[in-house]
């Protein structure tokens, strides 16, 4: 009698255990009904249930119609994109500091250093306020397609009448972090540059400050409207624009003789800094295009960086208008 009772108790306990494990497993493996549209998802609640289809909270994006937090480490290309967007206002600051001052006095170096310090401080603060907060790193969601940047265009319509609004930052945080950086750039510029301009360089930085009040908001608009296009095309834009500005810089010298160009660009510190700056931009563009996936193949491409400068120096004499024969009609 006792063995039968023991066997009965053991059988019941085993049956209860199997049923409970099956229930837990079933609850954990529940897959909600798919949502319409690429960017609509359901928020999973603490009790395991799912909400209605809609936009995922900030810092999340849908994965199989379930909102998942953005916890990935940004790939190299994303960091290069953020670096490009961070460099853009700094280069514009330096350009307008020189452009708005006809006399290239040594005091302008203070303004250049100030612009660099403001941009560096803005970058550090931007990383610290981003997730994970207080660390010089970011968590992100990987960019999968161009439409990730323009989720507002992918809101699904039910029966062509009712729109489900699922607009969100699917490329978190690449869209908003750039705008936060530009905001910090503007704040730090207004805090430091006017004082430095008035006290150290006799007001020579005033016009460049006014210029920044125009080009920084313009950069925000470009990021808001063309952020996705810039993400995919910035390496080529960087290479092309830097080549054009390098040619303009070299063409600005009155004497286009090769010896004079070499002397002017390699012995004058300001001109040498401009030249090396262009080479660094060329390098950045090549690294962004190749991502150095195959170092043995892509590494030697960096040796081509000085080639445009060398080409200009060797061919400048052939484009000198004084060497053209004027034919009278």
Folded structure, characterized:
The chain crosses the membrane at residues 79-97, 109-129, 174-196, 208-226, 232-251, 272-290, 296-314. Residues 1-28 form the signal peptide. This is JNK1/MAPK8-associated membrane protein. It is a single chain. This protein has 329 residues and is mainly alpha-helical. The protein folds into 2 domains: 29-69 and 144-171, no CATH class; 70-138 and 173-318, no CATH class. 57% of the residues lie in helices and 4% in strands. It contains 9 helices and 4 strands, in the order αββααββαααααα. The protein has helices at 2-28, 76-99, 108-129, 176-200, 206-251, 258-267, 269-290, 295-298, 307-315; strands at residues 60-63, 66-69, 157-158, 162-163. The strands form 2 sheets. It has a two-stranded antiparallel sheet with strand order 1-2. Strands 3-4 form a two-stranded antiparallel ribbon. The radius of gyration is 29 Å and the shape is elongated. The termini are far apart.
Q: In the residues, how many domains can be counted?
A: 2
Give the integer mean of the pLDDT values: 85
Class per helix and strand makeup: mainly alpha
Number of strands: 4
From the N-terminal CA to the C-terminal CA, the straight-line distance is: 128 Å
Uncertain parts: 18-28
Helix content: 55-70%
Number of helices: 9
Could you tell me the strand content as a percent range? under 5%
Shape: elongated
What does the largest sheet look like?
A: 2 strands, antiparallel
Q: Strand order within the widest sheet?
A: 1-2
What Rg is obtained from the alpha carbons, in whole angstroms?
29 Å
SSE string, helices as H and strands as E:
HEEHHEEHHHHHH
